[in-house]
Specification:
Blueprint (H helix, E strand, L loop, with lengths): L10 E4 L2 E4 L10 H5 L2 E3 L2 E4 L2 E2 L2 H14 L8 H15 L4 E9 L13 E8 L7 H6 L1 E10 L16 H12 L4 E6 L4 E4 L3 E6 L2 E5 L8 H12 L4 E4 L11 E6 L3 E8 L2 E2 L4 H13 L3 H6 L1
Parallel strand pairs: 8-9, 8-15, 12-13
Antiparallel strand pairs: 1-2, 1-7, 3-6, 4-5, 4-6, 6-7, 9-10, 11-12, 11-14, 14-15, 15-16
Helix pairs in contact: 2-3
């Protein structure tokens, strides 16, 4: 049985200090737990460098602003803490999770006087999906839950509360033998998977939903750039579910998922084709530290 996350070894950076992993605790009456007033990031380190750290840290600050609070550590301070913690943990390849949340000073919907806390944890997390499944393309269920209208939730933030329907959708998918689920938005258009953006290929052109009610992922933007570097046309647009029948390839993108081929979405089937494998390889090359590439 895997070791629970609250019992791992090492250190966590918390409110400006390194604390023993098992001592990094909060009170049960914490606003972030009861009212989801928390924002976070998911990052990966490759060869001792955290990929696009500044973009992730800037988004963490932007997410907090959308939730109405200010993180009491600058972008550069959080970046320094991430790098120092990575070194202190002794990892080269790892997953990095900064999080900020409202504390326990007030308990109720209103919490203007609550302290804003910030923590960073780093652990080794090789692959989000089963490696054997990933090579042949993972299978996605069609989720019942939908991404909400941006007038009803701060959809541009990476906020904890927005992931409740993702957990429900992924649990339902796994119960049916799928690896994940594809979610629609409130209009019935294709949105994303539960923790990754989605792409499709038809006739050599890459199609991806316009991120107007879900995150415009940093990995998503990286993949679009890599595709355009290859001369592959990229179309960002509204995609309807019945269009899936006409696509030849499909893949997910995200910090945890990286670039993951998809073989099925509900009744629709896809091949792990050349564009998918090319972008998967290009992304793997892009995340490697420059000094490691130069040494080769």
């Amino acid at each position: 049985m895997a070791v629970p996350f609250d019992q791992l070894d090492g250190f966590i950076w918390m409110n400006g200090s390194f604390v023993e992993w098992t001592d990094a605790r909060i009170h049960v009456l914490t606003h972030g737990l009861h009212y989801a007033s928390a924002v976070f990031e998911g990052e990966r380190a490759y060869g001792g460098e955290i990929f696009k750290l500044t973009e992730h840290t800037e988004r963490l600050h932007a997410s907090a602003t959308l939730l109405g609070f200010t993180i009491p550590y600058s972008v550069s301070e959080i970046e320094d803490a991430c790098r120092s913690l990575l070194n202190k943990q002794g990892f080269k390849d790892a997953y990095v999770r900064p999080i900020a949340w409202r504390g326990s000073e007030q308990m109720g919907v209103a919490a203007q006087n609550n302290r804003i806390n910030c923590a960073i944890a780093i652990w080794q997390w090789p692959s989000y999906f089963d490696p054997a499944q990933k090579l042949k393309g993972i299978r996605l269920d069609l989720a019942e839950w939908r991404r909400p209208d941006p007038r009803t939730a701060p959809s541009k933030s990476k906020a904890a509360g927005l992931y409740m329907i993702c957990t429900l959708s992924k649990h339902a998918a796994e119960a049916k033998g799928y690896a994940d689920a594809m979610m629609l938005d409130w209009r019935g258009q294709v949105a994303e998977a539960t923790g990754a953006n989605i792409f499709f290929v038809r006739n050599g052109v890459l199609h991806t939903p316009t991120p107007d009610c879900f995150l415009d992922g940093i990995t998503r933007r990286t993949v679009i750039g890599l595709a355009r570097d290859r001369g592959i046309d990229v179309v960002e647009r509204a995609i309807l579910p019945d269009e899936l029948e006409g696509f030849e390839q499909c893949f997910l993108s995200g910090t945890a998922a990286e670039v993951t081929p998809v073989s099925e979405v509900g009744p629709y089937r896809f091949e792990v084709g050349e564009i998918t494998t090319t972008l998967m390889n290009d992304y793997s090359a892009a995340v490697q530290p420059r000094q490691a590439i130069a040494a080769e």
